[in-house]
Structures are given as C-alpha cells and as structure tokens.
Write a structure and sequence with these properties.
By secondary structure, the chain is an alpha/beta fold. The chain has three domains: 161 residues, Beta Polymerase, domain 2, CATH 3.30.460; 150 residues, NAD(P)-binding Rossmann-like Domain (Rossmann fold); 81 residues, no CATH class. Helices cover 57% and strands 12% of the residues. The chain has a six-stranded parallel β-sheet with strand order 7-6-5-8-9-10, sandwiched between helices. The longest helix has 47 residues. The chain is elongated and about 120 Å long.
Length: 425
C-alpha cells in the first residue's frame, strides 16, 4: 500500500490562507469525484476543519498515486487559485510519515489546543463521507480505522483530555464545581449574550443546571440566545432582582466600567439574607468590582484567576505528549509491519502459484511421453509426489528466510529481490 498526504494547517499557514482552501461538505464530494476522474485507481479522503485542510490519497502501487505536486495543483485548481502562489504553505508527507501525521491529528496532539475533543470525530466523519461515496478502499480503510483506534488508545492511556483549558469550561467545571456539589437546584444568572456567554451555556447545562436566566442590555439579543438554548431571558432593569435570587452568576458583558459596584452589591446582599453566591466574572474589564470578593458568603473569580488554572491544565496536557507520541510510534510500526508482512505474503503466494504452474506443465509433458502413457496410477502418483517434494525443497529456504527476517527493511529487500528474480509483478 502507498499513502500520500498534502495539506495546510494552523502550524504554518495563517487563517487568511487556510480559508481560501476550505471545503464545504458538498465541495468535498465534488472534489473527490474530480480526483477520481483524473486518477481512477486512487483512493482519497479529504479533511477540512477550521484549523486544517488535508488531502490523503492511497493506492496499491506508486504508479497509481498522484505526486504531491499534482495534488497541490488539483486543490489550487479546484479553488481557482495559482499553485505557485500557495505551494509553500502545503505540507507534503509520504508513507510512514503520512500515517504518523494522521494518527497525531486524530489523537489531537497536533491540534491548536492539545487534547481538544472534536478532531477525532471530524477525522472519522471525513473518512465516513469518503466511504459513503465510494472514494475509500483498502488503504484508506486500514489507516483511518487504525487512526480511530489510536485516538481511543491515547485517550485511555494518557490524561491528555482530562483537564479543561478554556476559560468558560474552567469557570463552570472547576471553579463553580469546587463550591457546588450539584447544579440542578441552583439558580444561574448569565449577564451578557455575547460569545463568552454563548460558550458558557453548554457547560452549565452539561453540569445539570436547569434554572438559567439571561439578562442583557439588548433584550432582543438575550431572547435570541435564550431561545437557542431553551432558557429564560429578562430585561436589563431586572438585573438587581436576578442578582438577589441567584446562586451562581456568570458575567460576560463588554462594559467599560463595573456594572455592579461594592456599594450597590452590599444593598443587594442584605436582600439575599447572606446566602452563598459564586460569581464568575469573565468580562474584561471586570463587571464586578474586585472588592466584592472580600465580602462574606461571596466567591468571586476573575479571568486572571481562571487563566492561571487554564495555563496549569494546558501545561499538564502538554506533559502527556511524550506518552501519546510513544503510543503513536508503536501503532505506526504496527500498521506498517502488518502491511509489509501482507505484501511479502502476496509475493510468496505468487511464487508458489508460478511454481505450481511449471509443475503442472512439466507433469503434463512428462505423462504425454510414450514411455509413461501406460504407467500405473501408483507410479504416476509417486512421480507427482516427487515433483511436489522437489518444488517445496527448492522454495523452502528462500521463503523461510523472508519469514525469519525481523527488520522490515531487510524483508523489503528480500521480497523485492524475489520479485525481480522470478519476474513477479
């Protein structure tokens, strides 16, 4: 099996270039159809995400595989761009290097955020789309199914996915979770309906929060976000009332000054009857005056507090990389070894078939001679057995040498020599 990959990613290519080469789901099918028209014996899988565009191709022989230049030409032509203007942004990998890269991508150690959870499913979806449309064959089946197993093994044998590293996820899943054992009985107030608020809502719901209210200066924006997630929204003039009733506040506005000062909060705290309150202030500048955090029954966390935890968790994930890379190296060696053993098995079968053809031809010629035409069945059978023993003894030593070789490189050399000597294609 031969494998090749070309692609651009966040490592070397700025987003303004990557977005020129991104593919929609419909474009993926169209592109792979065009590729099959040009290279009929080639398999393909196209992966397109916000951080990478990668085209994998495979074939049984090198002759059937497009060159990296041809693949880059194909991708740039599809997007009506000049290849010479963009070819420097494309990585080019063959064979084991391409396999190792795919395993690294699927295991999320090549991601912009190490350990992020989406990429494994994105790789699998790209492969499934290729399978559904008939673009994937033996090579793609082997490497992409193996990539899925490698991702699971990295997930099980390392802790690369275990610690949160985004501010919203750390805020809810670590900071708030440290205070509350459960969320289903808590009243949650989200102040602001921007991107940070949107990102926080799924984490709150995943923790079991059922009573969530969104308050925003623009009631229309609050209503849209609330409808999207199936929660409540209220107008800005209800902010104080919601602060009074809340157990957990997530504040994410773009205000230039604190929206809740200490003096204002003290008045609200009296109405709260000294109930405990957790405030996750994700806004920059801060929405809650810092001195509020010194008041009794209040846990106030700012972005800086959360970023310290994010950085610590990111460092922890990166410490898992050596173990993940060892797993990937082991799996690359395993799949390559399997391929090479299978290839040598094909050669051995072809050589045995060739020998059987010669044996059959020579026996027919021999039994056609006048002297053996009247030979008894017992004599003919003995002659056939003699030919079988002769063929087996001649082939035994070279074939055993191939089976006994421990190094893949040596096995490749012996198999290539065998194919050349006996003219096996």
């Amino acid at each position: 099996m031969k494998l090749r990959m070309i692609g651009c990613s966040h490592h070397t290519t700025p987003v303004e270039i990557r977005e020129k080469f991104s593919f929609t789901e419909q474009q993926v099918e169209g592109a792979l159809n065009l590729l099959r028209d040009q290279y009929s014996d080639c398999e393909s899988v196209l992966l397109s995400t916000c951080n990478r565009v990668e085209l994998y191709v495979g074939a049984s022989t090198e002759v059937d595989l497009p060159t990296t230049s041809q693949l880059i030409q194909f991708v740039t032509d599809f997007h009506q761009l000049a290849p010479q203007a963009y070819e420097e942004h494309f990585a080019r990998l063959d064979g084991e290097d391409a396999i190792e890269h795919l395993f690294s991508v699927s295991s999320s150690i090549d991601s912009l955020v190490v350990g992020e959870s989406q990429i494994a499913s994105q790789v699998h979806e790209a492969y499934e789309q290729a399978v559904k449309q008939g673009f994937a064959g033996p090579a793609m089946h082997a490497v992409f199914q193996h990539a899925n197993r490698v991702a699971k093994r990295v997930g099980h044998e390392t802790e690369i996915h275990t610690r949160r590293i985004s501010v919203p996820s750390v805020a809810v899943s670590e900071m708030a979770r440290d205070v509350f054992e459960r969320f289903d009985d808590k009243k949650v107030l989200v102040i602001g309906s921007g991107e940070m608020g949107r990102e926080t809502l799924p984490y709150l719901m995943n923790e079991g929060a059922k009573s969530i209210t969104i308050v925003n200066r623009s009631l229309e924006n609050a209503q849209k976000l609330a409808e999207e997630f199936g929660v409540r929204s209220e107008p800005w003039d209800r902010l104080d009332a919601n602060v009074i009733s809340a157990d957990l506040i997530v504040s994410t506005t773009g205000a230039t000054e604190p929206i809740i000062t200490e003096s204002r909060f003290r008045k609200l705290q009296t109405a709260r009857n000294n109930r405990m309150l957790v405030i996750l202030d994700l806004a920059v500048p801060r929405d809650f005056e810092a001195s509020i955090g010194r008041l009794p029954y209040v846990y106030l966390y700012s972005v800086d507090d959360l970023q310290v935890v994010c950085n610590r968790n990111r460092t922890f994930r990166e410490q898992q990389l050596p173990k993940a890379k060892r797993i990937i190296k082991e799996e690359v060696e395993r799949i390559v070894s399997d391929w090479k053993i299978r290839a040598s098995g094909d050669t051995i079968r072809a050589l045995r078939d060739r020998a059987a053809e010669i044996r059959t031809s020579e026996l027919s010629r021999l039994f056609g001679k006048q002297a053996l035409q009247n030979a008894s069945p017992e004599v003919q059978q003995e002659i056939e057995h003699a030919f079988d023993r002769l063929v087996n003894k001649i082939l035994h030593q070279p074939l055993q040498s191939i089976r006994d070789v421990s190094q893949n490189e040596q096995r490749d050399s012996l198999v290539s020599a065998l194919r050349w000597l006996f003219k096996i294609r």
